[in-house]
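Problem 12. The chain below contains 420 residues. Write out its predicted structure in token notation.
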Amino acid sequence: MAKLTVKALESLAPRQKPYEVRDDAEPGLWVCVLPSGLRSFVWRYRFHNKTKKLTIGPVGLAEARRMARDARNLRDDGTDPALAKRAQRVAKAEQARQLEREIKKLPEQDDVETVIAAFIERHCEPKLRTGQAVARVLRKDVAGPWKGRRLSEITRADVHELLDGLIDRGAPVQANRLLSYLNKLCRWAVSRGIVAHNPCDGIGKPSQEKSRDRVLDDHELRLVWRAAGELGWPFAPIIRLLILTGQRKSEVAEATWSEFDLDARAWRIPPERVKNKRLHTVPLSPQAVALLKNLPRIQSASDLVFTTTGKTSVSGFSRAKRNIDVAVKVLNAGTQIPAWTIHDLRRSAASGLAKNGAELHVIERVLNHVSGAFAGVVGVYQRHTFADEMRAALDAWGRHIEQITSEKAAGDAELDTVEA
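Solution.
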């Protein structure tokens, strides 16, 4: 047959059995016409004195001729075209299998666990209790229930179901915290282009929280001070230092000796341990200095003031609080005082400073608040440290605590109880 043309190729009618037609324009190129009407090209050649065939497939005439020429060039360069094609096919198959393995190994970009892990790494500082709390809640209460799910598929109904579960467990306040943390996570994911929408949008707090205003009076502070003494190391000095300084529990419990200058009666809490990320210098009353000087020094690389291992700060505040309550009841002639929390000691110190005459802006400096009197423009331009005023206020508070917790004061209180 002469040189094939496109028209001649299309005119090849199918038969009951496959048949081949040679293309004289390209030596070795044949077209095979199948009973189905399919036209598939092959190139026949000799390699190392053996007749071989390379299947080109159902392509156009021009493409078949080009592929036949490429195959001839390979053969002339000493490569068997059929073996090269087989090797290429095997390589592609292995590449596809490798890609499939990688896809299975790598989660989707918006996989809930992946998004949470990235958020925690970038926004939850491990040294801060707040960062640890956010990470713990997201891992336990979000990544756990939504394991294997994509954040883009999470709906508002899913969020409500998550929150309802906490409320049904009797943790309404925790449900509020979870919504807050989850909302921050989702807003961050939207801002990064990981997901298109925030499923928390339009969801209000699942429960109403009561603002805490519990303040321990002098009698109650005396009981807590004395009850803490029953615990011994390390919770007795921690509780007492909380009362004397009005600082946060984590700031006291995780303090290091290098932060204290007892000669200057100053406690400098570094920014990384402070909620507002600002260096906070707390004047120490003589009572606080005496307490610190009487503490045992545990030699360790951690330099922690309150530690039982030498490596980590103390834990077990919940149990310590229960033990204090038991001791308070005994000291109070079998009567328990109204419910209180360790954080209430900070509020009680602030209230006590006010009753002793300290002004509001001085109290806020002691507590290291950046809201209230130091919010907005005032906070930007007000650079006076109020160090002297803070020292005077805390010294007066220290004297007051010493007075109400002295043996004489305790004896008078017990006498009043008996007479009553």
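Discussion. Strands lie at 19-22, 29-33, 39-47, 50-57, 260-261, 266-269, 280-283. Students who got a different answer should revisit the alignment rule from Section 12.3.
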